[in-house]
Amino acid sequence: MSKMTLEDLRKLRETKKLEASQRDTDGKETLVIVGMGTCGIAAGAKEVLDVMLGELKKVGNDNVIIRQAGCMGLCHVEPTVEVRTPGMPDTIYGKVDATVAQKIVHQHIVDGHLVNKHVYDKPAADIIKQ
After folding, report:
1. Considering the entire predicted model, what is its pTM?
2. What are the respective helix, strand and coil percentages of the chain, to the nearest 5?
3. What is the pLDDT of residues 60-87, one digit of tens each?
4. Residue 125: which residues within 8 A CB-CB, separation 6 or more?
5. Least confident span in 3-12, 23-32, 87-96
6. CB contact at 8 A, 31 and 23
7. Alpha-carbon span 90 to 44, nearest angstrom
8. Which of 95, 120, 109, 1 is nearest to 55 (CA)?
């Protein structure tokens, strides 16, 4: 294993600060919960979490808290992601892969529109547009 330079350590510190800030709740309004129970992890939830973190970093949205949770009870549609954002109904998405995770970030969190084909719990049917 090679030794790290001072510059490498500074870059690592900044990366870890950013990751830690995404878990800080002060002044943040949107909450994203990724189901990371054994069923979710087996279905690909770790990749979903990584993609969501990366996409939020790309769009520069620092108003989002990302948390991990255990099983949400929707094992048949894992991986699952719950999004709670002001002005929109709390929504649980199922069968989320990397592509759907990107859509959730861009459509739901940034643009304020549901990703209809992957809504598995909440909101009421009259809110979802076909």
Report:
1. 0.76
2. 45, 15, 40
3. 877 888 999 998 888 899 999 999 988 8
4. none
5. 23-32
6. no
7. 22
8. 109
Identity at 71, one-letter amino acid code: C
Helix (H, G, I), strand (E, B) or coil at 57: helix
The torsion angle over the Cα atoms of residues 116, 47, 51 and 95, rounded to 10 degrees, is: 0
Architecture in CATH of 27-121: 3-Layer(aba) Sandwich (3.40)
Contact 22, 64 (CB under 8 A): yes
Residue extents of the structural domains in the chain: 27-121
The H-assigned helical ranges of the chain are 6-21, 38-43, 45-59, 98-103
Contact 123, 89 (CB under 8 A): yes
